[in-house]
């Protein structure tokens, strides 16, 4: 297949830990088969920072904890035909969402002022124009833009990601066996 | 021998002993009706509504509804399963379920039901309500973030342990699991050997110091969907007539 007929795929890690991307790399030698099927557009895997064109599939790791995450996620929605939430952070907020039952001010105070390991005599909370503004809560991706498929897991196993991608790229329905849809 | 009550579930003929509920008869017949608050050995409670079936077209909870001669029960229909999915999704957005570090993960009935119904993400908005954890007891933990208010522990403590350690306070979204003391679990007469600690379907009521004992891959629902035990094992000496051994129509007519 020529590069032009290959499916274009983009990936990003928003409020995630990169574990889902690691899991994608965990498909081992199947990565060669993947390279036959797709070309990577914007992705931390190839370090392409901006979309170079329209993509068939976008993989979203992580939910949205700040305005930059929201911007990137909207950009993905704009450029990708199919968006897939991968991992519990994207599908339900995950570990970052542990702060969601605590008011934001309390979180910031604990992190930058009152925490037992914090030394911050001026009591300043980071607030630079370069820093994306933090959101009141961490939002799962589908509460910000429309998401077409969800692959939960922390992370989803390499097999889960592989099976889902191959089904999509070969125009088959994404019907994963029982073992491959897990929340942990 | 009292003749059995015969009726159908999803077109399959089943037989119940007098006094049995629909879900009990279904279990004996190898038909799994999804449930959360129902647990054999505890009084029926009828709160989660997951076991809702239709009897002659009218919905009712199969864990509380007695079987009756000739009724036509439907359970595995698209419409009922759609409602069940919605109920499960609501439980996920109302509680705070972080399965990735929950000690119950892999053995959790709520999670297993979500797997069974193929829920990959809830379609409702997450509520992120604040719920308390009570870690006061040295051997037992309550995490109300995961409590689904099924009252299994309430019933087990009362009826099996002869205590009354657990109960509910508040209404609607403020309803919460309470303990029979001024404030904390450690002030109650709960004991780590209480049967109440064995019945929680989720990771809300846990024994401490035993978490993550079973490795991933070996846990109850890692490979086997919930309900397989009901569907897979026919009643002993089952003749295939669809009736349970003690009420089997075939042996009776012999
Ligand atoms: S109680 Fe069940 S659904 Fe809730 S976090 Fe634990 S494993 Fe997940
Ligand atoms: S603690 Fe467990 S058994 Fe008790 S009401 Fe909550 S979910 Fe049910
Ligand atoms: S199992 Fe019947 S209402 Fe809960």
Please provide a written account of the structure:
The complex is a heterodimer of chains A (184) and B (254). Chain A has 184 residues and is an alpha/beta fold. Helices cover 30% and strands 20% of the residues of chain A. Chain A has one domain: 3-Layer(aba) Sandwich (Rossmann fold). Chain A is built from six helices and seven strands; from the N terminus they run βααβββαβααββα. Chain B is of the alpha+beta class and 254 residues long. Chain B has three domains: 5-76, Ubiquitin-like (UB roll) (Roll), CATH 3.10.20.740; 133-207, 2-Layer Sandwich (Alpha-Beta Plaits); 212-254, no CATH class. In chain B, the strands form three sheets. Chain B has a five-stranded mixed β-sheet, with helices on one face. Chain B has a three-stranded antiparallel β-sheet with strand order 6-7-10, with no helix packed on it. Chain B is globular, with a radius of gyration of 19 Å. At the A-B interface, α4 and β7 of A face α3 of B. The structure holds iron/sulfur cluster (2 copies) and FE2/S2 (inorganic) cluster (FES).
Which secondary structure elements does this structure contain, and how are they paired or packed?
The complex is a heterodimer of chains A (184) and B (254).
Chain A: E1 7-13, H1 19-25, H2 30-37, E2 38-40, E3 55-61, E4 64-66, H3 67-79, E5 80-86, H4 88-92, H5 104-114, E6 134-139, E7 149-151, H6 158-169
Parallel strand pairs in A: 1-2, 1-3, 3-5, 5-7
Antiparallel strand pairs in A: 4-6
Chain B: E1 5-9, E2 12-16, H1 22-28, E3 52-55, E4 58-61, E5 72-74, H2 78-94, H3 109-116, E6 133-134, E7 140-143, H4 152-160, E8 166-169, E9 176-179, E10 205-207, H5 228-232, H6 249-253
FE2/S2 (inorganic) cluster is lined by residues 35-38, 46-51, 61, 63 of chain B.
Structural class call of chain A reads alpha/beta
CATH-defined topology of the largest domain in chain B? Alpha-Beta Plaits
> Strand fraction band of chain A?
15-25%
User: What do the pLDDT scores of chain A average to?
Assistant: 95
Name the overall outline of chain A.
elongated
Radius of gyration of chain A: 18 Å
CATH class of chain A: Alpha Beta
How much of the sequence of chain B is in beta strands? 5-15%
The largest contact between protein chains, plus residue counts on each side, is: A-B, 28 and 27 residues
Strand order in the largest sheet of chain B: 2-1-5-3-4
Number of strands of chain A: 7
**Radius of gyration of chain B, taken over Cα atoms and rounded to an integer in Å:** 19 Å
Biggest sheet statistics of chain A: 5 strands, parallel
Tally of structural domains of chain B: 3
The amount of helix of chain A comes to 25-40%
Task: Please name the fourth-level CATH homologous superfamily of chain A.
Answer: NADH:ubiquinone oxidoreductase-like, 20kDa subunit
């Amino acid at each position: 297949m020529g590069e032009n007929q290959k499916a274009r795929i983009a990936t990003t890690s928003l409020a995630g830990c990169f574990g889902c991307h690691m899991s994608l790399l965990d498909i081992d030698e199947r990565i060669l088969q993947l390279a036959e099927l797709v070309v990577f557009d914007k992705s931390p895997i190839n370090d392409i920072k901006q979309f170079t064109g329209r993509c068939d599939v976008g993989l979203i790791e992580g939910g949205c904890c700040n305005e930059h995450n929201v911007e990137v996620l909207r950009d993905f929605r704009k450029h990708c035909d199919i968006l897939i939430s991968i991992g519990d952070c994207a599908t339900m907020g995950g570990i970052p969402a542990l702060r969601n039952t605590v008011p934001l001010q309390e979180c910031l105070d604990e992190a930058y002022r009152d925490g037992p390991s914090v030394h911050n005599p001026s009591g300043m909370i980071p607030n630079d124009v370069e820093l994306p503004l933090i959101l009141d809560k961490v939002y799962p991706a589908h509460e910000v833009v429309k998401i077409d498929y969800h692959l939960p897991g922390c992370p989803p196993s390499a097999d889960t990601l592989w099976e889902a991608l191959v089904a999509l790229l070969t125009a088959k329905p994404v019907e994963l066996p029982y073992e491959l849809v897990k929340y942990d | 021998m009292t003749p059995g009550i015969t009726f159908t579930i999803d077109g399959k003929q089943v037989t119940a002993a007098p006094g049995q509920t629909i879900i009990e008869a279904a279990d004996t017949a190898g038909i799994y009706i999804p449930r959360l608050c129902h647990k054999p050995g505890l009084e029926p409670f009828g709160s989660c509504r997951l076991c809702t079936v239709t009897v002659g077209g009218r919905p009712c909870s199969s864990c509380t509804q007695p079987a009756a001669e000739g009724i036509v029960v439907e359970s595995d229909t698209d419409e009922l399963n759609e409602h069940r999915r919605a109920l499960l999704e609501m439980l996920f957005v109302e509680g705070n379920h972080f399965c990735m570090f929950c000690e119950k993960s892999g053995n959790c009935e709520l999670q297993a039901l979500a797997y069974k119904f193929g829920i990959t993400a809830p379609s409702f908005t997450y509520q992120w309500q604040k719920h308390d954890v009570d870690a006061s007891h040295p051997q037992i933990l309550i995490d109300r973030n995961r409590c689904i208010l099924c009252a299994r522990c309430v019933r087990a403590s009362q009826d099996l342990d002869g205590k009354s350690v657990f109960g509910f306070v508040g209404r609607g979204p403020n309803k919460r699991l309470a303990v029979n003391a001024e404030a904390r679990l450690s002030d109650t007469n709960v004991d780590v050997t209480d049967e109440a600690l064995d019945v929680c379907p989720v990771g809300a009521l846990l024994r401490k110091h035993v978490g993550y004992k079973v490795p991933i891959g070996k846990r109850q629902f890692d490979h086997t969907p919930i309900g397989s035990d009901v569907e897979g094992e026919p009643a002993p000496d089952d003749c295939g007539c669809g009736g349970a051994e003690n009420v089997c129509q075939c042996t009776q007519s012999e």
